[in-house]
Amino acid sequence: MSDFRFVTESLSVSPQVDPADMARAAAQGFVLVINNRPDGEDPGQPSSASVEAAARAAGMDYLHVPVRGGPTPDQVEIMRAAFEAAGGPVLAFCRSGTRSIVTWSIGQALAGVDRETLVAQGYAAGYDLSGVLPA
């Protein structure tokens, strides 16, 4: 069972989820699941298609935005737009949750959220964004 880490009222991030986690995510009120992990990164990880099927079966929307290394500007914009359009809480995941929170936080910074707020939100969720976001 994955650890959903609260970042804001609208976003939680998680290390790798399993299709079985999707019913719990829906029960907790998530409306959108964003997968930032490329398929095949680890032989034991579930496929994006299997997580998507479970998310949709649980009544949630699903988006696959695979990030390798750092996110591209297009990936940041896709995730930012999906987050804004979700209409409810979003759960984003990757191997550790780091790529998900980094991609989200860059989009938030570009939308005008101040660095200190984003770094504090990341820290509270167990992630250090101080080296990612410009001072």
TrEMBL record:
<dbReference type="GO" id="GO:0016787">
    <property type="term" value="F:hydrolase activity"/>
</dbReference>
<protein>
    <recommendedName>
        <fullName>Beta-lactamase hydrolase-like protein phosphatase-like domain-containing protein</fullName>
    </recommendedName>
</protein>
<feature type="domain" description="Beta-lactamase hydrolase-like protein phosphatase-like">
    <location>
        <begin position="3"/>
        <end position="111"/>
    </location>
</feature>
<dbReference type="InterPro" id="IPR005939">
    <property type="entry name" value="BLH_phosphatase-like"/>
</dbReference>
<dbReference type="Pfam" id="PF04273">
    <property type="entry name" value="BLH_phosphatase"/>
</dbReference>
<dbReference type="InterPro" id="IPR029021">
    <property type="entry name" value="Prot-tyrosine_phosphatase-like"/>
</dbReference>
